[in-house]
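Design review, sub-item: ligand-bound model
Attendees: FS, YL, KQ
YL presented the inputs for the nicotinamide-adenine-dinucleotide complex:
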Amino acid sequence: MALERIFVAGAGQMGSGIAQVAAQAGYQVVLRDVTADLVNKGLGAIGRFLARSVEKGKLAPEEREAILGRITGTVDLTPAAEADLVIEAVVENLAVKRDLFTQLDGRCPPGTILASNTSSLPITELAAATGRPDRFIGMHFMNPVPLMQLVEIIRGIATSDQTYREVEAVATRMGKTPVEVRDGPGFVSNRVLIPMVNEAIFCLQEGMATAEGIDTVMKLGMNHPLGPLALADLIGLDTVLSILDVLYTEFQDSKYRACPLLRKMVRAGWLGRKTGRGFYTYQ
Ligand SMILES: NC(=O)c1ccc[n+]([C@@H]2O[C@H](COP(=O)([O-])OP(=O)(O)OC[C@H]3O[C@@H](n4cnc5c(N)ncnc54)[C@H](O)[C@@H]3O)[C@@H](O)[C@H]2O)c1
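KQ shared the predicted structure:
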């Protein structure tokens, strides 16, 4: 049977982006967060993105309405039972995700695919929180989801070929380019990216240059569209720290130790764009 209904758990920056691209691809989508305010914030972000697309002439007004009409917000987990695919995009915390997947596993029929958008946590370990490791997979979208082409698809130790093929087809229908990656800390994207971001934070801590200076070096010198500190603010400093801690713990290698300045900023609640303050300040 064709996969048509997608349940997205977590309506933050990634979950709302995933819900948007799924609805744009014609899927029926349910977007869930823990409070109505958070759900509405996610739906609001989607509405604003699509309104800007209409203003720019990239999207017809009636298409915007049709896309929004395919997304339902909820604080309830129950509708996950109706979904063919669940994509989890809640906070980067192993205990929170495992608990959620155990609950989802209990509610969804055996055929439902459970996917995690985790940035770094082991897919095999998340899968083990369910009774369906063969129907479990990593679907790692990039931020901002509507604009970024890549989806890393991560197979856990027990992920079936059938599950892989179905999820690859979903990513392709969403207009993304899937790349198959083995399960390992940070996968490929964050194993390469996040140590570079961490090194930029060490440069700032050591006073090598200002934040603007460091970002300009990487933009003009390496042709990066965004400097590493601005990128960290976009990703969320809490998420960057969580990924570093996973790399450090999993590899047992000091080269992945998080810069103390990063940890201090997270403790202060300076998480980047989402809180209005990180390496830069935001309105
Ligand atoms: N930020 C990035 O650049 C990026 C990129 C790729 C993947 N990711 C991953 O995506 C996930 C989400 O990151 P984000 O940046 O969207 O974070 P975010 O802080 O913007 O959103 C997380 C959301 O999850 C919600 N939540 C927490 N527990 C929940 C539950 N039990 N059920 C439903 N919702 C719950 C929170 O209320 C919050 O709204 C993380 O695993 C992160 O590592 C992030």
